[in-house]
Write a structure and sequence with these properties.
It contains seven helices and no strands. It has 179 residues and is mainly alpha-helical. Helix 3 runs antiparallel to helix 6 and helix 4 packs across helix 6.
């Protein structure tokens, strides 16, 4: 190996690698979900990701409502509680954390309570069952979730997920300390 190649290799090793499309990534993460192409690029819009997320929550609710979810399968329930948790966080960020002044929070809180009843019934009877009153409040909360997703950017939803996971990690840690 020649000395020149070694010197070149050393220079390359110490020079930082830059991402030429970092500005596109920033715009894509910061802009609300839309079908419009990302500004200044050929990249498609981000609406498909939002639609996919909303459809997954709707499908999970439909499966649980129809009784198609297996008793041992918690994925549908987990997906719905995750959507409700993110919705509560984003609703608080958007319109404030006071449920008297934020019209999104009371239906989301009611849906979380309904999901808790569904979980308690599953623990007691061994099957997933959503009562009609619970289905109504959960359906309303899913509509709010869809509006929140549509009004949010990917970066805002990622931050809400991080906050929720941080809260869950704290709750798990707290429960471990209690036992």
């Amino acid at each position: 190996m020649s000395r020149k190649t070694t010197s070149y290799a050393r220079k390359r090793k110490h020079s930082p690698i830059s991402n030429g499309s970092a500005w596109l990534d920033s715009i894509q993460r910061s802009a609300p979900y839309s079908d419009e192409p990302i500004i200044g690029s050929w990249l498609p819009g981000t609406q498909s990701a939002a639609t996919n997320s909303m459809n997954r929550v709707r499908d999970a609710f439909g499966r649980m409502q129809l009784g198609w979810t297996a008793p041992a399968d918690t994925m549908d329930y987990d997906l719905m509680t995750h959507a409700m948790g993110i919705s509560c966080i984003r609703a608080g960020q958007i319109a404030g954390e006071d449920s008297d002044n934020n019209p999104m929070l009371p239906p989301l809180i009611a849906a979380n309570l309904a999901l808790r009843h569904v979980l308690n019934r599953r623990r007691k009877w061994g099957k997933w069952e959503i009562l009609p009153v619970e289905a109504e409040s959960i359906d309303w909360a899913i509509e709010i979730y869809e509006v929140i997703v549509q009004a949010s950017s990917p970066m805002q939803l990622t931050a809400a997920v991080d906050l929720r996971m941080l809260g869950l990690a704290g709750a798990v840690q707290e429960s471990l300390e209690i036992e």
